[in-house]
Automatic annotation (TrEMBL):
Organism: Alteribacillus iranensis
Phylogenetic classification of the source organism: Bacteria, Bacillati, Bacillota, Bacilli, Bacillales
Pfam families documented for this protein: CMD
Occurrences of domain Carboxymuconolactone decarboxylase-like (ranges): 30-112
PANTHER family given in the database record: ALKYL HYDROPEROXIDE REDUCTASE AHPD (PTHR33930), BLR3452 PROTEIN (PTHR33930:SF2)
InterPro entries per record: AhpD-like (IPR029032), AhpD_core (IPR004675), CMD-like (IPR003779)
Keywords linked to the UniProt accession: Oxidoreductase, Peroxidase
The protein's name in its UniProt record: Alkylhydroperoxidase AhpD family core domain-containing protein
Length: 127
């Protein structure tokens, strides 16, 4: 992501960049990739916390750490697990309480853009 593409494709392009990078990583060091995937699969599996709650936690941490790829990935994860936009925005509000202005800037821009794009994409598929 050297240049930021138009707003309409930035979210999808960033998500694809992440997936492509993960694929290349998996091809080059498959033993590490398998262990990483097994670990993250276990972390995000339903347990005492639901998958939905875990995605909201991951989104908050992503915002706090300013990781744009993870912000987009976990915003989609939240939506995929049934979070409403209001639940997502409340979760990012908690992250903003810890992360200050930098977290707020991600919450009011990238998260909302990702929610809008993924919800629009979802409604286009169901039409």
């Amino acid at each position: 992501m050297s240049e930021q593409p138009s707003n309409d494709s930035f979210i999808q392009e960033a998500l694809q960049d992440y997936k492509d990078g993960l694929k290349r990583f998996s091809e080059k060091v498959p033993h590490l990739a398998r262990k990483y995937h097994a670990f993250t699969d276990a972390c995000f599996a339903s347990g005492s916390l639901s998958k939905k709650e875990k995605q909201m936690i991951a989104l908050g941490i992503s915002i706090f750490s300013q990781d744009e790829y993870c912000i987009i990935f976990h915003t989609k994860g939240c939506l995929d697990e049934g979070c409403s936009e209001k639940e997502i925005l409340e979760a990012v509000g908690v992250a903003a309480a810890f992360g200050g202005g930098a977290a707020v800037s991600q919450a009011v821009t990238l998260v909302q853009d990702a929610v809008n794009e993924f919800e629009s994409e979802s409604s286009d598929r169901s039409s």
